[in-house]
Batch of 4 targets.
Target 1
Amino acid sequence: MTPDEVADVFGTMASAGVVALVALPVLYVVSRSSSTALRVGLRGSGPALAGAIALVATAGSLWFSKGAHFPPCELCWYQRIAMYPLAVILPIGAWRADATVRSYGLALAGAGIAVSVWHNVIETFPSLDAGACDPTNPCTLRWVAGLGFWTIPRMAFVAFSLIIVILVLDSPEDSPESERP
Amino acid sequence: MSSRTNATPDRRRVLLLAGVATAVVVVTGIAIALSGGSDEPASDAAVDGAYGPVIVEGAALPRFESTSDDAAIGLDTPRVEGVDPDGNPVSIGVGTGAKPTMLVFLAHWCPHCQRELPVIVQLITRGDLDGIRSVAILTGTSPDRPNFPPQAWLDREGWTGEVLLDDEVTAAATSFGLSSYPYLVFLDANGSVVARASGELPASEVVALADLAREAG
């Protein structure tokens, strides 16, 4: 598979992620009024779901750098610092049914999405950056565009967004049975 | 304070989800691993044709920092001899031209270069750079990066000036003090630096710098 084909695969996942980003809050509100479905269904599963997303994002990130040999730019590195630990702490938190992992997850994902927003802005509008390319590895460079749209920063943004939405919707305070002691 | 819970009914669901997630990751990993991670390489001919042999004579210009207070203004440039994509000899720098010159250093993958090139092409087409020798130096070339090969990009954009292929270690660009792309160097007819600039420049600024070079003669 070429990097473009792999980008199409991850771009398809990102497209599904966008659907989930829209559907999850809607379903949550609907289920909240009827006290059924998603609200109950998500309870306790958030860290596992978010961890799965972080694992896929981490796998994609590593493949693009080690498989396709795309060197990560500076902003990519900052987002890696946020995403990679999520792939470890969220599954462990899910395994241990540790409600506090949501706080750590939200803090890391929040930092990651802040960087991701700026990365997407300068990738879309390069003139907002320095106005010139670093000869080595500018953050405005578009390595791939899966399905003609999904650049690496855009896919990262969807991953961070999904993780945040899932962890917020799975808030223990909001559960029918509080997990707090 | 412990937040460890005994959410036993949910534990099975968590484990199930974790199992599904693990399976997804494993399947994805296997699929990617089986893919070999290899890109469709650019053809050898395309790669070979994207670089030129470059010979640099003379002292390099200082690294470009800013257009104002540029220490390179008035300095003689090095003389660089190379080839265009067709293999024809092209020389830039001191002692290589009989008229003012605009050197445009471009990297095919750089989005700022991709936006600046049409601006310059339009200026040339409109005649705003008449009397100026225009040379595009294709540098920072990498077959692994988007918009390769660079000469095809120049053709698509309608570049009508001369072209010089930099080598794999960007010897030409380095000798002219490049610090970022795109990078423009304006020379007088003797090959001395009149002005240098980098980044996306508006058409009016390119014309203003070209006027300086014309005035310097």
Note: Residues 44-216 of chain B form a domain with the Glutaredoxin fold (CATH 3.40.30.10).
Target 2
Amino acid sequence: MGTGKYKNMKECAKAIKLSGADIVTVAVRRVNITDKKKPLLMDYIDPKKITYLPNTAGCFNSFEALRTLRLAREIGGWKLVKLEVLGDKKNLFPEMIETLKSTEVLAKEGFKVMVYCNDDPLMAKRLENSGACAIMPLAAPIGSGLGILNKVNIKIIRSQTKLPLIIDAGLGQASDATIAMELGCDGVLVNTAIAKAKKPFDMALAFKHAVIAGRQSYLSGRIEKNLMGNASSPKKGII
Amino acid sequence: MKKIKKIEIKLNGKNKLINENYKIQTLLNDLNIPIKKVAIELNQEIVDKKKLNKIKLKKNDKIEIVHFIGGG
């Protein structure tokens, strides 16, 4: 789960707990020197109890992203990081050339890099070959709530990789998470859909159930799709 | 009494006057910064936390102190 956009730290911590999330993304920013009483994230969400995933949100080139993640590693010794290099301030789509370059550098430096990317199977393959430890294609633009726009591509990416596949960005409601899991994804990363829901706690719980339902559905093996009807009751014994 | 010379540095993007020969550790103590929860960069180079008490700040040094906040 993402930890941004909540009313306050307390609300964020409660929503995370209700969602059952294993990992939370966090941003690296300047310490507020003038207002020392500002609450610290670590005081509300204990990094010993939940995995912190430092993210490069807000970085628009490789230089900024690498600088941010090297600092993140210094804060807590985390090697597991999320790389997100944006290319456009309006649609927030990933800048994939810079992302690919950064993935290579970070993997060589010993980072375990989970990579935010577009839903392009060819690019996903190149990221895997460059040392990514997880592929995180977008469902739709960050914060858009549009849900998964290209299910076919997500299915293709699933079929070609054994790496963890996590849908990152663009989910709007719990059923979007179910669809992601039914496509064979290993998880979803959600922020705005929960933080900005009218009832964030209820939505966090809804996402938890949606992920479980989607995963169970995927593992259960769905029926074939048929054009025509197929009656559920036997014909024998009809009066 | 000898007057202490002041120098100007840039701290998190803002100008700050400090005493000459100030160490990074002293600055962090003054600001009440929890060292375990931050990372420090001096002129775009990450500072080894073990050396905070050895590095003296110079005029026009750029120091960045960062931590984790909520984010997507």
Note: The two ends of chain B are 54 Å apart (CA to CA).
Target 3
Amino acid sequence: MIKVNTCAARRLLAAALVMTLGGAVAVTGCGRSKGGRSAVVVYTAEKDEIIQAVRPLWSKAAPGANMSALVSGTNEVVQRIRSEQRRPLGDVLWGVGAEGIVANPDLFEPYTPAQAKAIDPRWLAVAKGEPWIPNNVVPMVLMYNTKLVTASEAPRGWRDLADPRWKGKLAYAAPDKSGSAYTQLATMVAVFGDNDAGWKTIERIMRNARILQSSGYVPKGVADGEYHVGITYENVAGLYLQGGAAVKIVYPVEGTAVIPDGNALIRNAPHPEAAKRFLDFLIDKPVQEVLARELAVRSCRTDVAAPPGLPPIDEVKAAPNFDFRWSAEHRKALIEKWQAIVLRLPQ
Amino acid sequence: MASHSAAAPAVGRPRVVGDPWQRALVLSYILLIFFFIYPLAQLFISSVRAADGGWTLTHFREFFALSYYRSALYHSLYVGVMVTVLATALGVPLAAAVARWGVPGKALLRALIVLPLVSPPFIGAYSWILLLGRSGWITQLVQHAGLPWAGTIYGSKGIILALTLNLYPFVFLVVSASITSIDPSLEDAAANLGATPWRTFRTVTAPLLMPAILGGALLVFLTALADFGSAVVIGETYLVLPTLIYSLFINEMGGEPAMAATASVVLLVCTTAVLLIERWYISRRSYVMSGLRRRGERRASPRARAAATAFTYGVVGVSLIPAAVVMLTSFFPSSGPVMHPGFSVGNYLMVFSTVPRAMLNSLFLSGASTLLCVVLGVVIGYLLVRRPGRATGGLDALLMVPYAIPGTVLAVALIRAFGVPPLLLTGTVAILITSYVVRRLPYAVRGVVAVLHNIEPATEEASLSLGASPWRTFGRVTLPLMAPGIISGAVMTWVQVISEISSTILLYYGPWATISIVIYQQVLSNNYGTAAAASSLLLLAVFVPLLAFNVWQGEKAAELV
């Protein structure tokens, strides 16, 4: 009987060896990525479809310059750049919430792309003095499930979310975990005022809210019917809308924050020339047009139309008191106030 | 080495001058300190460092003063204990049923039981929301039938449900390995002396299985305590320690590393305490057998056999629900993030350009890591059981460190330690393998330890006193006896590495994206259809080799019996 087990162990070892060696042969056989001086290593939080759409455009724009993309959430991408600070492996950070870049200015080098003047001056002003370039524009929005909420019941703005009828039906991501959720909190502070009355209203909204651990679950939960209403941002809500989910987008009547997603040059990038070329390429008109038309990415340029089905940016009312810089500077204080509120609520 | 040791022949007790295991012990310490402790030291020190550079306990005071942090600790312990109790209650009878009661279709069963351990990143837990969420398929069915729907899947209940069905295979694997090594003559003796089957089980079988049961339970507890994926997806507002550590540490807005380190140390204290209790319990009651005879199946009455079969297939069936939902949804047509009813292979076509290469990467990385884990696990497991003492006790405690550290945090520590000369590992495949081995070694060690506790040292001593060198004795006597434990440890390591995501996401580069990276990218892009397709391929890539191995081994076993 012992023999059986010896055999088993040997067989397992043999199986593991075969798999490992097979894998090694196959992996080496596939060839390593073509490196070289013109290659560019892109760290990004962009969606898979966007990367797939940009890839052929880049190989046409820069033949022979291989683009290698490492994709993960904004949190992980920024943390990775920080961890690799002493020996950077990435060249460009592409398409992440500007909050993440502004909070880590030491990781990036300022760079002004050739076509900077084509970018809407409003967004250039937001990035002024900071080491990043606007890429696309993202309004914060509300989203509701049309199977659960009729158009007349739907909230029209931030203040409506404080109505007790949304109790347990409102999805909101935790602002201490998600950059976009933090911007949404700062927007509410701008709309209601950073004073007792304002925070009382925010507390009433939080009473209604289910706090989710990641911003991605908000639009998904609303589309699945897990929540009636969600606080989210336009380009992800737009994807559900385009995909045929039973949802509608609401641009808050009080106005909302409109924030550019940004690109940045990583400090001490191993391929700085290719990196700059890629940063230029990302705001080229043809590239921005393709992304707007096919993937609902709202361009940062003045000369590219809004994505089909979405209103032109000038029809989206901006929250009059929202200031991106103020929001970035007061993050710690606002998060602490928010945490104090959430801790008071019954679980 | 072997000839050198043979020059000083070992006699009597295995602890002798020139014992090659001393060298193995020293080597294990060096490896663990270099690859676990050195990278993590910086992190731990930061938990007791003040902003001005002095030493302080303020972080710990703050942790226990704020209910925000305290509640996360309570939640984690509650989930950990509940999941451990439930998973053990499922895993032990299941192992007994499969090993002893002649449940049909064993080769298939053993491969199926392992599948829940392969929980594709975020997708596995999401299946429960699709079924039991507020608008879940089952929820709606129940509501249509006019029945009241009690409560929701969200919160602790959901996490406990998902983790129990995800982790009970640990108990099954460790206990099965141990059951096959129980000497049948002990039970027969009890029966011949007039003991009832229940009394035999209580006084003979259960004590012999205790190290394995506790070993499996320990793995479940530690894994549940460190779980991140289920808590994020199903927890909703229910905050647990790993979610907290993650958001404190990995935060685009600049986290609070000192507080994250503090929370990690608190988690580490919990895991170490549980480990010490387990060791204390096992040291008090240790039973060994000659282990040379192995247990076959019992001849069970048809009714008992039918009951065991129904129970086994029932549990396995329920635990495979998430995998089944993933496979089902992978065939739904999807446009962007939205899945529509119908049938389509579109999701598979979408991932076809990335999946084959990623699958090869995953197979290679998990194969190589498992090999390393098995070799190290056998050596360390042997040391822990056969050379107990202060030095090996310390080794055991060191092994628990990676449990308490979320994968993402470990990855950051590795990048910081090995991203600069003298040892440059970042941007190479070696850093991925290092992180896998560091995190999964305890599984391989536990598998070996659980089995080795029941094997009498006398067998090895006999070999030594007959003049065999220590290495020869180990290779020809001990290793074969440990085989079931090695296999269960290897399987646990392999399936966990192949679906690893949290450290891979920070460590992979260029062409080394694994299949779990592909899945995670689709999840991030909100493409649950394509994520489900890639997940189904991952499940298949785990299931097919396991089934083939079981069938292959099963036939061989039948010939030799």
Note: Chain A touches chain B through 83 residues (CB under 8 Å).
Target 4
Amino acid sequence: MTGKENLRVKKTNLKAQKKGLDSHTGSHIKAGSGPFVTRGNIKTMSLALAVLVAFGLPLVITSPTYLHIIVLMFFYAYLTTSWNMVGGFAGVLPLGHSVFIGIGAYTSTILSLQYGVSPWIGMMIGGILSVFVGVLIGLPTFKMRGAYFALATIAFAEGFRVMVENIDFIGPLNVNGPRGLQIPPQNYGFANFMFAGKEPYYYIILIMLIGVLALTWFISRSKLGYYLNAGGEEPEAAMALGVNVAKTKLAAMAISSFFTALAGTFYAQFSLFIHPKSIISLDISFEIAFIALIGGRGSIAGPVLGALLLRPVSDFSRIYFGDILPGLHLVIYGVILILVMIFQPRGIQESLTRMYDSVVDRVVTWSQKDGEA
Amino acid sequence: MKILEITDMVMRFGGLTAVNKLNLSIDQGEILGLIGPNGAGKSTVFNCVAGVYAPTGGRVQFNGQTINNEKPWNLCKKGLARTFQLVKPFATKSVLYNVVVGAFATTDNTKEAEQKAIEILKALKFEDKKEVKASSLTIADRKRLEIARALATEPKLLLFDEVMAGLRPAEVDGMVEIIKRLRKTGITIFLIEHIMRAIMALSDRIVVIHFGKKIAEGTPQQVASNDNVIKAYLGDDYGVS
């Protein structure tokens, strides 16, 4: 829903901007050194516009409920983008990423509750811890293929959840077992990663999302990205071309688990309450995979588009049918997944990208005609 | 100087001895053909050299270094590249992308790798298809892509595993030309091939194996008139008259 709206906003704004450009700087274009309206320029401009719109959104949407929904939307887009480094590029299907969310959330929360460490520092420590766990999980499991790998990661995630549920103390650290941890809402402020309103959380997750998207873009154009794709598609051929497939997958896993853990801290500070069932559950792991598969695995836009499409489905079905049909959103996810897999096996990003490209092309040709006339 | 030297190589899979005490060597700049009936162990020899299997016994030396237990990706960086009998392109990616993966063997920079890949595609007269998805290539182009990718790793020794299988005669001639041009650049080539016309035209020397054992070695003419070779291919009843 929101995705389409966003697109429409983008398009109309773009036209408006172009018209303004023609009237104001028209003479400049004619005198200038080449056409201003090129594919590259339009794409950069519309990207900048999308970012601008995203930054301005809380000025328009003031309802905390809707802002909450959008924050979660970005949260899932962020998670799925982090997941995508392993699940998309490396061509495996990890279904236990909630482990890293859990590690991130528990590390920063325990450190801040018991030792007064700022959650920002706890966030980094959680990320680093998560890297170790991610590599530890990856070492034995990356030798498996297909469903076996997926099952092994599920086993790790479930094992971790059961452990946390049954442990009250790890040494001096109070994990509090199945009851979870409550963060008392006091000492608001940036240093404590705690705010009264939703807006600050909105901007934090937005910046995190932009950061992780930029990193993904960078990786996809680097040696690591090429090697991940190659190793995911044809491991034997990749090895013969100099790719240490296991090593690149571990590198991707390390990066992915680090950034997933950061999201864990964010979630803990956003909801101020964590317990094993809510953040280490398979539900989250599966939802990430759903979003990635429907949006488009291995693409940069896929996870974002998937989250923009699926999260509202989940939230509104919970709001309207939560009492009558709990879990309805998963049924809807399933139906959407089946439809997407039949008609768009590479995710909705493929057709949306094509549509976007043709719009850009049309604008370019239209502006050229305009310039000639 | 010997670029590759195989001494007493043995490869067993359980009770099956696929390669049995094989000795062969390749000089720098040479084209060596390896032939033999189906199941003779040719591809196993390749896989042992390229690091896919560690040979059960014997020694493989590349440029004077023993490489018995070396992994494929390290061998690639040392200058040993190969193609696969059953082509394995990165199917969802473009031709250029495929070759860039190979080019990354010698550089970490994406721009440099891309430039090198384009140069190689130009040299193979393949540049017009650089944006084509690998999955939509014809079999001849897929074989060419295998070669382009392998070349991008800047090999000293290239192992060609039946790069001409499944090609039409005109395409075979094209491939023979490509390989002839490659050897002029100084690359040593180790070739498995079933198409006799091609291997006779290309090889300086040919080694024939049968049930994992070497049964003949020599120039193409010597091998073609060798009694053992004729028997291996046609059976014991065919004497040479």
Note: The longest strand of chain B covers residues 2-13.
